[in-house]
Amino acid sequence: MTAIKVPPLGESIVEATVSRWLKKEGDAVAAGDTLVELETDKITVEVPALSAGVLAKRARGEGDVVKVDELLGELTEGAAAATNAPAPSAATPTPSAPAPAPSAPAPSAPAPAPTPAAQSSEVRASPAAQRLATEQGVNLAAVPGTGRGGVVSKPDVIEHLAAGAPAASAAAPKPVAAPAPVAPPRPAVPAGERETREKMTTRRKRIAENLLLSQSSTATLTTFNEIDMSAVSALRERMKEKVEKEHGVKLSFMPFFVKAATMALKTYPIVNAQIDGDSIIYKHYVNMGIAVASEAGLVVPNIKDADRKGMIEVSRDIGALAKKARDGKLAMEDLTGGTFTITNGGVFGSLVSTPIINFPQVGILGLHKTQDRPIAVNGQVVIRPMMYVALSYDHRVIDGQQAVLFLVRVKELMEDPATMLID
C-alpha cells in the first residue's frame, strides 16, 4: 500500500477542501494520473499518482476539509494499472513479432503527431490535460510538464497553446480561456426538492471571512464621479494594433486606469496608506491589486511597483497575472503586499456599485460599464461614452475632501491621457 497524502499547498496555506475525486475505489491508475483535486483559498491543487496501481481506498470524501500531510487515500501498487492503459500501439513490440526498436514507430512514411489518446501511454498527464489536448489537437509529448514528477497539467497545455505552439491537427484551435468567467456549476437538484444544501469551499469561506473583516474593521464610505471615455478610447483604438504587433500585448483600458491611479496616489498618498494600531504607514510605492474573477472565486493579485512601470509593462503584467489566476498558478508572492486595488465590474455589465475595501488597504477604485449617454458640452447636448467610477475609502484615515479630489484627479487624467504619457 502507498499512502496518498495532502501535499504542501504553499506558504501560509495549511488546509484545503477535497474538490472532487477523479478516480473511484478499484480503478486502475497510471503513474501521473490525477487522483483527486484539492481547493485552497487561492488555487486548485491536483494530486497525482506517483506510481501505477489500483486506488484501494478513498479516506476522505468530496467537501471534506483536509490539512497538509493528512491521509487522502491508499494506492495498491502493481501491474493491475495496465488494465487502464490504451491498447498497444504499433510502436510497442510483441513477443510474436520481430522486435523493432523499442520507441520507433512502425516502418512507414513519417508518422503524424500522436493523438492525445495514444499519448497517455507515453506521457504522464492529468485527465484535465488530456481532455484539453484532445479538444485542441495538441501533442502532449511536446508539452513540458511542471507537475510533480514531470506530470503535464492542464495549465501546462494552456501555456503551450498561448505560446503559439502549433496544434497536432490542421483545425484552428479553439479559444483556451473564455473572455468572462463561467458561473460555477450548481449541485444536482433531485426531482421534487425545493431546497438543497451545499458545503462552502475553503476558498469561499475565506472570501466571506475577508469581506466581513473589511466591513467590521473600516469606516467605509464611497464617492462617485463619471469619466468621458472619448479621448482614451480614441487613443487606444489608434495604438492597440501597433502595440500588439510590436510588443505582443493587447492594450485594454485597465493599464490606463492603473497609470491614472498611480499618478493620483502620488498626489494623495494617504489613499495608498495603511493603519497599524494608532499609526499611519505611508507606502512610497504602489503594488496595484487587480481583482480577477474566476470560476472558483475572487482573487486579487498585484502588480509590484506599478508606479515605476510604463503602460506596456503594466499591460503585460496584467495579462500574465490574469492568466495565472485563471490557470490556478498564482504564487503567494502575487497575492500579498498590495497597497491599493482596482476592481472592474463593468466587464460583467455593472453600471454602478460600491466596492468593498481590500483590507488592510484603505481605498479601492471601482470601474463600471462604458455606456453612451447624453451630456452637456459647451452648452450643447452630445452623446459620449461615459463611465461611472467609485472610490470606497476608509474614513478613519481619509477625509472626504481627499477622496473626492483623488477621484477628480483620476477623471482628469483619463479624459486627457496625453498627460499620463508625458509623465
Written overview of the protein:
- The chain has ten helices and 19 strands.
- The longest helix has 18 residues, at 230-247.
- The protein has 423 residues and is of the alpha+beta class.
- It is globular and about 80 Å long.
- It is 27% helix and 23% strand.
- The protein folds into three domains: 1-85, RNA polymerase II/Efflux pump adaptor protein, barrel-sandwich hybrid domain (OB fold (Dihydrolipoamide Acetyltransferase, E2P)), CATH 2.40.50.100; 120-162, E3-binding domain (Dihydrolipoamide Transferase, Irregular), CATH 4.10.320.10; 219-422, Chloramphenicol Acetyltransferase, CATH 3.30.559.10.
- The strands form five sheets. Strands 9, 12, 15, 16, 17, 18 and 19 form a seven-stranded mixed beta sheet that branches.
- It has helices at 116-119, 127-136, 154-162, 202-217, 230-247, 254-267, 311-327, 332-335, 400-415, 418-422, and strands at 2-5, 15-21, 28-29, 34-39, 44-48, 53-58, 65-67, 71-77, 220-228, 274-276, 279-281, 288-290, 292-294, 297-299, 302-303, 340-344, 363-367, 370-377, 380-394.
Question: Summed up, what is this model?
Answer:
By secondary structure, this protein is α+β, with helices and mostly antiparallel strands.
- Looking at how many chains there are and whether they match, the oligomeric state comes to single chain
Alpha carbon gyration radius: 26 Å
Secondary structure tally: strands: 19
CATH architecture of the largest domain: 2-Layer Sandwich
Q: In CATH, what is the homologous superfamily of the largest domain?
A: Chloramphenicol acetyltransferase-like domain
Determine the number of helices (DSSP H or I, runs of at least 4 residues). 10
Inertia-based shape: globular
Low-confidence stretches: 79-121, 166-183
* Beta strand %: 15-25%
CATH topology of the largest domain: Chloramphenicol Acetyltransferase
Number of domains: 3
Given the helix and strand composition, which structural class is it?
Answer: alpha+beta
Mean residue pLDDT: 81
What would CATH call the class of the largest domain?
Answer: Alpha Beta
Order of helices and strands: EEEEEEEEHHHHEHHEEEEEEHHEEEEHH
Largest sheet: 7 strands, mixed
- What gap, in angstroms, lies between the N and C termini? 64 Å
**Helix content, binned percent:** 25-40%
